[in-house]
């Protein structure tokens, strides 16, 4: 298979591989790229964060830093804190992205992350309340893509979960006499994470064929994509399908089944890394 045909007719080039149930990078259709996660202060670029993680999915590299601040809760939700996710796709991570305000893809990814947090109930906003009507935690979750080669959503959800599991919040009390908040940095508590959502993305080729964990090239050639988010109980948290080829019920069920299997792999990986960070 010549390189020429890949440049001139990339779709035909891919189809020849797909007929043999494999892909140009040597993976089977249902095979994920090598996935790694680093958690915590080893990430020198964001040592100011209260929690951080770096996830690599093949060449796609995403870093997440969580910064916790205190603020007054909203009047209509006096017992709730805030979670503010933001996805950045800087021009350095791929030629397709430009400098300047967030583009459409970054905005869509930020909204997707916000929906995952809400739908999965990974963090219950009531748990971020410090003093009802007076003080609550705000978690700023900045997800930055350092190297883009497709499947941004899976990497982003994984990095977010890993970074949140790394967060240690200082103890905060309100002084009864002065009414001011007092922070004890020596006494820290981990964030309460209720659910562990994991995203699994698929590209649809020629309206029928599903391939898992698509690269940027595969996403560009696909007739559609779909991302399934599940939690540790196998519960479906969200289905993200931004247009493209429709999926039959059977195909969608196949995606959900594969997503549940993928969840177990990711959870195992994250637990292993966290265990290695915990002193004996």
Automatic annotation (TrEMBL):
GO terms for molecular function: mRNA 3'-UTR AU-rich region binding. It is found in: Cytoplasm; Nucleus, Nucleolus. It comes from the Eukaryota. The keyword Nucleus applies. GO terms for cellular component: cytoplasmic exosome (RNase complex); nuclear exosome (RNase complex); nucleolus. Keywords: Acetylation, Cytoplasm, Exosome, Nucleus, RNA-binding, rRNA processing. The keyword Cytoplasm applies. One of its GO terms (biological process) is U5 snRNA 3'-end processing. Residues 31-170, 197-260 form the Exoribonuclease phosphorolytic domain. PANTHER family: EXOSOME COMPLEX COMPONENT RRP43 (PTHR11097:SF9), EXOSOME COMPLEX EXONUCLEASE RIBOSOMAL RNA PROCESSING PROTEIN (PTHR11097). Belongs to the RNase PH family. This is Exosome complex component RRP43. It comes from Falcunculus frontatus.
């Amino acid at each position: 298979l010549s390189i020429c045909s890949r440049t001139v007719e990339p779709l035909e080039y891919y189809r020849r591989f797909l007929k043999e149930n494999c892909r140009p990078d040597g993976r089977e259709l249902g095979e994920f790229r090598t996935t790694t996660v680093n958690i915590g202060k080893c990430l020198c670029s964001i040592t100011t964060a209260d929690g951080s993680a770096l996830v690599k999915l093949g060449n796609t590299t995403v870093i997440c830093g969580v910064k916790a601040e205190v603020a007054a809760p909203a009047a209509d939700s006096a017992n709730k804190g805030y979670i503010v996710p933001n996805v950045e796709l800087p021009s350095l991570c791929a030629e397709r992205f430009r400098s300047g305000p967030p583009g459409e893809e970054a905005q869509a990814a930020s909204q997707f992350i916000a929906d995952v947090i809400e739908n999965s109930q990974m963090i219950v906003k009531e748990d971020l309340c410090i003093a009802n009507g007076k003080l609550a935690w705000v978690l700023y979750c900045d997800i930055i893509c350092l190297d883009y080669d497709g499947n941004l959503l899976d990497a982003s959800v994984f990095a977010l979960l890993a970074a949140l599991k790394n967060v240690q919040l200082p103890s905060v009390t309100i002084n009864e006499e002065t009414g001011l908040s007092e922070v004890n940095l020596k006494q820290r508590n981990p964030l309460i994470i209720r659910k562990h959502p994991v995203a699994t993305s698929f590209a649809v080729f020629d309206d029928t064929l599903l391939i898992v964990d698509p690269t940027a090239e595969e996403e560009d050639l696909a007739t559609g994509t779909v991302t399934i988010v599940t939690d540790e109980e196998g519960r479906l948290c969200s289905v993200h399908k931004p247009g493209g080829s429709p999926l039959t019920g059977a195909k969608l069920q196949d995606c959900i089944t594969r997503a549940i299997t993928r969840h177990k792999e990711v959870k195992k990986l994250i637990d292993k890394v966290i265990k290695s960070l915990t002193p004996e």
